[in-house]
Amino acid sequence: MQSANYVLVLADRGKSVVMNGTSLTLTIPANASVAFPVGTAIVVINVNSSALSIAITSDTLTLVNSTTTGTRTVAQNGMATLVKVGTTSWIIAGLGV
């Protein structure tokens, strides 16, 4: 469980990251600094009473079934799945996103 701002690491691949803290940001690092393999999936769960921001550095994060890109917000008790679909591209989907 993460209780402070957190940057994903390669060891998070295929796991769940539980976030619990006020006004937190989880960051997906640039492919240049952490080269997650294409196909990597990471589940993010926000158990805090405030929203969680999922930010991305220089790569692209796209909301599933849309063309909306950039930082996404996950509501209280929301859950999001991040999937790397290209060298510098991620898709986000979930409840409360």
In short:
With 97 residues, this protein is mainly β. The protein has strands spanning 6-7, 16-19, 25-28, 41-46, 52-56, 60-63, 72-74, 79-86, 89-95. The strands form two sheets. A five-stranded mixed sheet has the order 2-4-8-9-6, with no helix packed on it. It has a four-stranded mixed sheet with strand order 1-3-5-7, with no helix packed on it.
First-last Cα distance: 20 Å
Largest sheet composition: 5 strands, mixed
**Spatial strand arrangement across the major sheet:** 2-4-8-9-6
Strand-residue proportion: 35-45%
Written overview of the protein:
This protein is an all-beta fold and about 100 residues long. The chain has strands at about 5, 15-20, 25-30, 40-45, 50-55, 60-65, 70-75, 80-85, 90-95. A five-stranded mixed β-sheet has the order 2-4-8-9-6, with no helix packed on it. The model has no long low-confidence stretch (mean pLDDT about 95).
